[in-house]
Automatic annotation (TrEMBL):
This is Multidrug efflux pump subunit AcrA (Membrane-fusion protein). InterPro entries: Biotin_lipoyl, YknX-like_C. Residues 1-21 form the signal peptide. Residues 406-470 form the YknX-like C-terminal permuted SH3-like domain.
């Protein structure tokens, strides 16, 4: 429930005197006051919880045994300080296997070269070569025989006939060879096209095999890197300076998380455990081991080992009602009172307003508001102790403030539908209904930004019973 509260108005000297006489035993039903200036503050009240700057629950990256614990509950640690060491032969064996797989994947096998594709080509044959030689020998014998003929005329005719036959044979042989060469060229063109297609196919196969080898090598490197990270995580170090708590921070669900992580392969469980143990703004789950973290205690992947809380800067997380949250913004000043520190007030400043609603128990919704928490003082002026994360508080946010407002008591205001009304005393002493606009609204006093002027007389008590034209005291 939101409560609006104002600063003490100090208006005893500014309040109007009573205008009607009354008996000493009974206060008058209607009281009149004079409009004056006064400081008015509108305050929104909301429940809140103290939070730390950061909280990290560090978890075991793999199944093993706690080899050594270097800290105790409540110790202050610095960033990078060794907190716990885990012994995990299984994780180291996984690393050795991953490195062997990486070396095998990185080895360069004999590459298939596209240049190795066979080049197919037929030689140009000479089908008439042997026949030409045999025919040439026959023509030579015929010419020798013709030269032995004694009759010159007959001898000349025989030689001429032999030469003509030889010429005809040469022409036929040349034609046959040309046909053979043309056919060979055509066949070689077809073979060349086939050879190119075969080469392209071999090239695609080579590229595919290279891609597979590259993917396999990348996967092997990733697994080796994850295995190395798991082994490195066996030495648990503080991610930042803070206060140590052995095991997990208060909260539920850690045992279930540890059980689930324990079912994963060691490399993946290490990564998931490291991610789950990262810095966070809230509490994490308790150790899945279910007992105190000490040397010799077995742990599973994901078991909470140590929680580090940075309390160098404290904050407040408040739930502001939807009816008030639009008045809240970064820089708004506030004061906080802690249940654990009675009589002390802590300074605070709004640093951010969330947009995700949270359903309230009464059916409405509230919104998260983050505040930086400052130092506190007791009512007597002494310094108050620094609170601890998780403590309950009530914050009062000064959402509107007017140090020199035209102010009237909150009891003067009458709400009529969507209008805000005051009863003003006319000069003739009768009541006038006046619609006004309000600014800052404190618990005791409210600011009137429009509709009233200083010095006017208004009804400050019994306004609900006044009627237009009524004679006022």
């Amino acid at each position: 429930m939101t409560i609006r509260r104002g600063l003490p108005p100090l208006l005893l000297s500014l309040m109007a005197v009573l205008a009607a006489a009354c008996t000493s035993e009974e206060a008058p039903k209607v009281q009149i006051g004079t409009v004056a200036r006064a400081p008015v503050s509108e305050v929104v009240e909301a429940p809140a919880t103290v939070g730390a700057r950061a909280t990290a629950t560090l978890r075991s990256p793999a199944a093993g045994t706690v080899a050594k614990v270097y800290v105790q509950d409540g110790d202050k640690v610095t960033k990078g300080q060794i907190l716990v060491r885990i012994s995990s032969p299984q994780a180291r064996d996984q690393l050795a296997q991953a490195r062997r797989a990486e070396r095998q994947a990185s080895a360069s096998p004999r590459a298939m070269s596209v240049a190795a594709a066979p080049g197919l080509r037929l030689p140009a044959p000479n089908l008439t070569a042997s026949l030409d030689r045999e025919v040439a020998r026959g023509f030579a014998r015929a010419r020798a025989a013709a030269r032995k003929v004694e009759d010159r005329r007959v001898r000349a005719q025989l030689l001429a006939a032999i030469d003509a036959a030889r010429t005809q044979h040469r022409a036929q042989s040349a034609a046959l060879n040309q046909i053979t060469r043309d056919l060979t060229r055509s066949v070689n063109r077809s073979l060349s096209q086939m050879s190119g297609q075969i080469g392209a196919g071999l090239g695609g196969l080579t590229a595919s095999m290279a891609s597979l080898r590259s993917a396999s090598a990348s996967q092997a490197r990733a697994l080796a890197k994850a295995a190395q990270a798991t082994v490195d995580g066996l030495v648990v170090k503080a991610p930042f300076g803070g206060i140590v708590t052995l095991g997990g921070a208060p909260g539920g669900g850690g045992a279930n998380l540890g059980a689930l992580l324990g079912q994963l392969p060691p490399a993946l469980a290490g990564q998931a455990g490291a991610a789950a143990g990262g810095a966070s703004g809230g509490g994490a789950a308790p150790s899945a081991a279910g007992g105190t973290i000490a040397s010799g205690v077995p742990v599973s992947a994901g078991d909470a080992l140590v929680t580090v809380t940075d309390v160098s800067k404290l904050s407040l997380s408040a739930d502001v009602d939807e009816t008030d949250v639009l008045l809240v913004g970064p820089g708004v000043r506030a004061e906080a009172e802690l249940d654990a520190v009675t009589g002390a007030t802590y300074k605070a400043t709004v640093t951010g307003v969330g947009v995700t609603p949270k359903e309230g128990t009464t059916g409405g919704v509230s919104y998260p508001v983050r505040l930086a928490l400052g130092a506190g003082t007791y009512d007597g002026g002494d310094a108050a102790p620094a609170p601890k994360p998780g403590m309950s508080a009530v914050v009062r946010l000064t959402v509107r403030e007017s140090p020199d407002a035209v102010a009237v008591p909150a009891s003067s205001v009458v709400t009529s539908g969507r209008e805000t009304v005051l009863w003003v005393v006319r000069g003739d002493g009768t009541a006038e209904r006046r619609v006004v606009t309000l600014g800052a609204q404190g618990e005791a006093m409210v600011e009137v930004t429009r509709g009233l002027t200083l010095g006017e007389r208004v009804v400050v008590r019994g306004a609900d019973s006044v009627r237009p034209g009524q004679t006022l005291p």
